[in-house]
Specification:
Blueprint lengths: L1 E12 L2 E12 L3 E5 L6 H8 L7 E6 L2 E2 L5 H6 L2 E4 L11 H6 L11 H14 L15 H14 L4 E5 L7 H16 L3 E6 L2 H7 L2 E6 L2 E7 L5 H9 L17 E8 L9 E6 L3 E5 L6 H9 L8 E4 L2 E2 L5 H8 E4 L3 H4 L7 H6 L9 E2 L2 E2 L1 H14 L16 H14 L4 E5 L7 H16 L3 E5 L3 H7 L2 E6 L2 E7 L5 H8 L7
Parallel strand pairs: 3-8, 3-9, 6-7, 7-8, 13-20, 13-21, 16-19, 19-20
Antiparallel strand pairs: 1-2, 1-4, 4-5, 9-10, 11-12, 11-14, 14-15, 17-18, 21-22
Helix pairs in contact: 14-15
This protein binds adenosine-5'-diphosphate and magnesium ion.
Length: about 500
Amino acid sequence: MLAVEMRGITKRFGNFAANDGIDLLVEKGEIHCLLGENGAGKTTLMNILFGLYRADEGVLKINGESVTGHSARKAFQMGLGMVHQHFMLVDALTVWENVVVGNEPGKFAIDRKDSIRRVQEISDRYHFDLNVTEKVSELSVGMKQRVEILKTLYRGAEIIIFDEPTAVLSPPEVLQLLDIFRDMKKQGKTIIFITHKLNETKAVSDHVTVLRAGKSLETVATADVTVDSLASMMVGHDVSLELQREPSRPGETVLELKNVRLLPNAQSTVSMEIREGEIVGIAGVEGNGQKQLEELILGFQKCREGSIYMMGDDVTRWSTRKRCGKGIGYIPSDRHQRAILPGFSIQDNYLLGNQFSPEYVKNGMIRRKFLHERTLELMKAYDVRAVDEKQSAGSLSGGNQQKMVLSREVGKDTRFVLACQPVRGLDIGAIRYIHEILLDLKKKGKGILLISAELTDILQLSDRIAVLYKGEILAMRKNEDYTTDSIGLLMAGQKGGQ
Ligand SMILES: Nc1ncnc2c1ncn2[C@@H]1O[C@H](COP(=O)(O)OP(=O)(O)O)[C@@H](O)[C@H]1O
Ligand SMILES: [Mg+2]
């Protein structure tokens, strides 16, 4: 029997079809993966199923029943639940209060004891390991996610949609979540699991439907496909996932942190050195001090404890401008805030950050001809695809925006590159290209500090890896000296897990 039947679903935003005749058939009691790159249309399709958007065309059936005039209220009544990418919890309330509040229509007084008992019972049945009287503010991200799941279960949801739930989790938490999926399946629940990660798909699902550019490909049984074939389905052509990383030949130190405090309540300070000809990766779940590290190195944040050296100079008290003048290639984690002027042309964007360079500006005048030639040269060298250099930067795809930023930053004559979340939001093709650029820079002798929330990036590119947890470096070792398990445990804060 089908729990969900969506046929020919089309959803347009203006002229653009985010969903273009999509078919999705989900069997009752299975774990069904919806796999697709960023922008493929996954969230849009699920918002339609959950009644948040109205489809322009197509047929929707839930448990065999045709649904018309779909709404979130109806979805809820028909047993659908959704765990969104962003949690909707009240920090100041306890777990059980979050679960029960807003779900007791018509009841003026909630029976506290009974509610706690009921919520705890569900939590235990699925091995959530939660104390439901604890405040949500005390919980880790992984635990908060369980509270969201608990909310759907408490409401009696039978079909539960998870929108990229693993994006916010450390590797051991991911494994635990996949176990929870299996438990839920055992209890007869139907799970729709959205992800762009192939290994997760392969590990847990019964069927996979691949979305590509708003269209659905055929649904396949997971057991019948390999990770490689899923990758090529998702991208539309063969992709090789293997990369060749050459051994590092570390030269002079380009960046050094000495006893720098990243987070006010961190148990210890951070010290590390980055040398020419190596990539040092910072592994860790986002929110453990990565942002602070980035801002301290650039000087956006004052360094209140410890010192920072660049190419031998103590830059601790230097302004951002002076540090950049010293030579940092900087790929910011927030492209839009720090790296791009979306309303300006690509050419103008290549000037950004070079305003003080005599090559680009002489006697207060922009050297237009030089800028133009340099723009064309970098666009070509780094495969920035655009109509021409006059196109606005904001109208480029995410991958091309990132190539533009990267080419501008690494095209500078610097010995140190700080690359923060360089592949976030990009598709496999662009990711691979950016990986190759970073490896090539290392080969050319630049020292690179790579901060990425994607463990696969870190493992594929880094010569040495530091694991960041709550503002502290729990380990700094050569790449080869970690296993995927040991690094995963460290990312979850388990020092003993080596
Ligand atoms: N409300 C909206 N208005 C305009 N475009 C949208 C809207 N929501 C999504 N899109 C576009 O539709 C496409 C699919 O988006 P989405 O469903 O979020 O993809 P996914 O979840 O697979 O990453 C993207 O190109 C996105 O920019
Ligand atoms: Mg999405």
